[in-house]
Specification:
74% of the residues lie in helices and 4% in strands. The protein has twelve helices and two strands; from the N terminus they run H-H-H-H-H-H-H-H-H-H-H-H-E-E.
Length: 274
């Protein structure tokens, strides 16, 4: 470790260690932490809608930038408070590749976390919409975002999902490299701000946007929600692997132990050479 920050090889070791911990976590803890993870991302999404909607009519570019600056609060809470998030848990493929966890453990984790991320997202969606947190401008902005997401092509959703999770997992890895809270905050904030600003698709964030849109407008088709989440989720999985596995293959250092050569002698006793 240099200056309190992990080197790339130390980061890979930490990814494996974290993957083992997540894969062996009791089911109830996965469920509870998954709810929190989904709720935190949804709160970031709600902040994005409210902050962006105030400026979208006068300066759409600035509105998007302000919303992008607010959204990372969700992932920062996930990282600092140790919640479970489907997209970042795609990095468990590193521990699986290293043969430290089984395929069953990998699938158990990501499916459980994905489902309970939705539970947390739904709770925040319901409270935000039914509690009146969105004014008319926010509701219109939400509907515009949701409509755009469900009418994008499958290919566009898939490739945007890939780059989204490259940045999300990159944010998590940057936070791993730092020992202090400020370093973790900055490391998590910058890549997340970037993915929102560019307009990439995050499956858990989309759970919030699309569910909230459905709660606002009952005619919003559920089939379109599943359509969006299917292709974005596939892209997110590929994106997590696309950043985690190359780092593993480039920087993982297998510990090698040298077998000692020992000799016995009446005068010197036993001596071992390494």
């Amino acid at each position: 470790m240099t200056d309190g920050h992990k080197t790339p090889s130390e980061l890979v070791d930490y990814m494996i260690k974290t993957g083992i911990d997540k894969a062996t976590k009791p089911l109830f803890k996965l469920m509870l932490l998954g709810i929190f993870g989904g709720a935190f991302i949804a709160l970031g999404g709600a902040g994005n809608i409210i902050s962006g909607s105030t400026l979208v009519k006068t300066d759409p570019g600035l509105a998007k930038f302000i919303g992008a600056c607010v959204f990372p609060v969700g992932l920062i809470m996930v990282v600092i408070l140790g919640s479970e998030l489907f997209t970042s848990n795609c990095l468990l493929t590193v521990a699986y590749t290293n043969k430290k966890i089984t395929l069953i453990q990998l699938i158990r984790n990501i499916i459980t976390v994905y489902l309970f991320n939705y539970v947390g997202s739904f709770i925040v969606s319901y409270i935000t919409v039914k509690g009146g947190s969105f004014n008319s401008d926010s509701l219109n902005y939400l509907q515009d975002i949701a409509t755009h997401k469900v009418h994008a092509s499958a290919y566009a959703l898939f490739i945007k999902g890939i780059l989204c999770n490259v940045l999300v997992c990159g944010a998590v890895l940057l936070s791993y490299t730092s020992k202090d809270t400020i370093g973790k905050l900055v490391g998590a904030w910058l890549p997340i701000m970037l993915f929102v600003l560019i307009g990439y698709d995050h499956s858990i964030a989309n759970m919030f946007y699309l569910t909230a849109a459905k709660l606002v407008d009952s005619s919003f088709e559920v089939s379109l929600i599943f359509y969006n989440l299917f292709y974005v989720t596939l892209g997110n999985i590929i994106g997590g692997m696309a950043i985690g596995l190359p780092l593993y293959f480039c920087y993982y250092k297998k510990q090698e132990w040298t077998t000692p050569t020992c000799r016995s002698g009446s005068f010197l006793g036993s001596m071992c050479f390494y």
